[in-house]
Structures are given as C-alpha cells and as structure tokens.
Amino acid sequence: MADIKTFHLPDLGEGLPDATIVEWHVKVGDTIKLDAPLASMETAKAVVEVPSPYTGKVTKLYGAAGDVIETGAALADFEPDPNAKQRAEAESTGHHHGPKKSVGSPAPDDGNKVVASDEGGEVETGGKDREDEGTVVGAMISGNHVHVEQVASVGGVKAVPAVRALAKKLKVDLAKVRPTGADGVVTMKDVKDAAANGSAPIGGAPARAVPASAGRHLAPELPEPGPAPQRGPVSLAGKPVRTAPPSQPATGQPEQLKGVRRNMARVMSDAHAQVVPTTLVDDADLHAWIGKQDITARLIRAIVAACKAVPALNAWFDGKNLTRTMHRHVDIGIAVDTEDGLFVPALRNADVLDGAGIRAGIQRLRTQVEDRSIPPSELSGYTISLSNFGMFAGRYATPVVVPPCVAIVGAGKLSHDVVAVMGGIEVHRRMPISLTFDHRAATGGEAARFLKALLDDLASPQ
What would be the CATH architecture of the domain defined by 152-197? Predict the structure, then answer.
C-alpha cells in the first residue's frame, strides 16, 4: 500500500489562525517536486506561495479556491516518490505550529527588545537565540531582511502573486493584459484598467490593441438592462412564495469574511473586549496658517508634538499584567481604507521626519498597501494611531483603540465655522479632532493636556 503523507497548513508567519485558498497550482494526480509552488494562500496581509513539502504525486486537495483553511488543518495529501530525495522528517522547514498569540497582545518579555530601524520595519536586538528559524513557509534563514513577494513568470506572464489574485477576483485574463511594469511585469494598475475597459475578459476573444491614450478615461460599455422581473405572491412554478415571519427580516445570503476583513473583525472584537475607551473632542483652528500647507503632514507633526508633551499616550499597555511601556520614538499607525478592508501601516520615526519625509513615507505606505506588497512588519509595532476619516465625511468619531496602543487620533472633515472674536465674529477654517484613549492606562487630565498640545501645534502659522 502506498505511503500517504498529509501536509497541514503551517503558520504563514503572521500569527493568524487561518488563510484563504486563492489558487491551486496543481490538481489531484499531478506530480510535484519538493518546494515547487503548491498553492497561493491569502492571509490578512499578503498572498503567500505555499511550497510542496514532498516530491511525489498529489492524491488529495482539501478545499477549493475561496475556502478558508485553519492553521494546522489538512491542506493536501501526497504519495512521496521513494526514489527521490525528500526533506528529512527532523529537518527544519520554517513551519511553525506553536501556540497562537492573541491579536494585539504584546510579546512576552524574554529579553528581546523591538526598535524601529531607519528604513522602517522592526529589528530585534538582544535576548536569547530564537528556537525557530522563522515562521514562514519553506526553509529560511533568520535575519533582519524583509522578504517580499517575488515576480514569477507563469504561462509567459510576469506578475507577483497579489496581482494574480486580483486578476482572478476581477475575472481578468493576465495573458491578454498589456503590461506597463519594468521588464514586462503586469502591475495592479494594469489589471484594474483591463477590468474597467473590458479588454481582457477570461474566456473572451483576444482584445484588439488600442492606443494607450485612447479610451483611458471612458467608462466600460455595459449591455442595456432588461426589464426587472415582477415580484408576486406566486413563484414561476405556480406555487405560493414562502415568506419569513415578521420577526425575521429578509436578508441576503451570508458571506464568509476572508483575508483582511476577517482579521479586521477579530482585531475589532478583541479591542472591544480588552480596552476601556474614552473620547475627547475639540476643534483645531487653522485660521493663522500661512499659504498652502500639507494638512496630513501638519496633523502628524502635531501628534508628534503632543506625544513629546504627554508621553503617557504614546505608549503600550498590557492589561493582563498591568504594565505600561512609554516610547521615546513616535511610530504612527495610519489607517488606510481599501475595498478589501482596513490596513494600518506604520509611519516609522515620525518624530525625526520633516514635512517632505512625512509625505514621502505616507505615499510609500499607501502604494504598498494598494498593491499588497507591504511587509507584515510594517503593519504592527506602531505606538499611536491616526484615522483621517474626514477625507471622506464626518466631523467627530469614537475611533477604536487597538491594544497594546493607548490612544488613537481621529481627524474630521474640515469646515468653515463662525467663531466669536474680540469685537465681533469671524469665519475660520477648523478641523474637528477626536481623541480616544484607554482610560486604564491614561488619566483624563493626561488626555486633555495631550489634546491641547495637539491643537496648539495645529494652530501655529507654519
């Protein structure tokens, strides 16, 4: 009888309990080599290529594209080739099946310290040697280098896994997409443009080449909608339509949360259970500003000034052990809204950046979030957060504090308000500010002084 080996989904290096199958690179009956791509799996932060742990024949695949697989659950069965060299059972593969860490909880104090590097990301210094050589799939040497997705050529098309996942989601045939990236690489924008103009549908005829400037800003042509079907008390089969009782409102089909939204739901749930939030609101008066200024850069500069004035809010709090860690540096987590869900990348060392450095850092993070190339290390470890929801709408809010952070600043929509001044009234441009903080770690007085320092910096002319 053939020796069947079952491969269990390893921890993909981000501490999450599951991952979503994006695409299988093999089918049952195929022969695969050791470390060849087995499947693309989507976590909350990236699309990861899972390599084969054996050389041999694939006998079973547990799940289809779109299915959620829990960490440690069976992913695939193999019949190893007895004549091929296999990885030794005791040989390190980088797979990690240790106890899961709770989302948002600080790491245990084992003597290691995490500091921000000059280039962004985190660098471990000091402490004991780690027992595991890494928590990502495949053999890997530990170190301080950030590992990002690599461009792979499949079927003559060069693209990173995140681009392939987007193309699959938008039903775009990558072979028909006109690449604009370096060395003929298909980019996220290429896929989105192809989806918008309908030039590369899956299964359709090859698209006719069009000039790059033609039709770039035109909406896709859609078929004329037909008449909407009439609803009535009788179905098409002539039977009475079944209705729900009044106590059960009609709803659509349940949709399982995946990837980023699934992780966001967990993080928000944990934050709700762990934090004691309190919110202060006020308005920053921008009337004294001279010339045109970068509003986001000024806002970040004001947060840095407030962190220096009241360090208690630029801190982490461990509710289990009742310990507080105040930070000298300021790493600001900036909430970025996407169709897939909420990302919070960290703008490292904001306290030493000038306006140009802040703008360049924000643009880099937004670009990496959009094309899903941002390293996982850039999505954690920030010391305070910013939600600039006023870019869309809203004046005041109660933003969610995600532990271990102590505070988050929310910036509302700018407005022109009538304000009272000596001798009459004036119209001033103002920015609504909301400060939510964990009342277990900071007092109301500390929060109020932090908010005043922030407002004072925003009110300065330059």
Answer: Irregular (4.10)
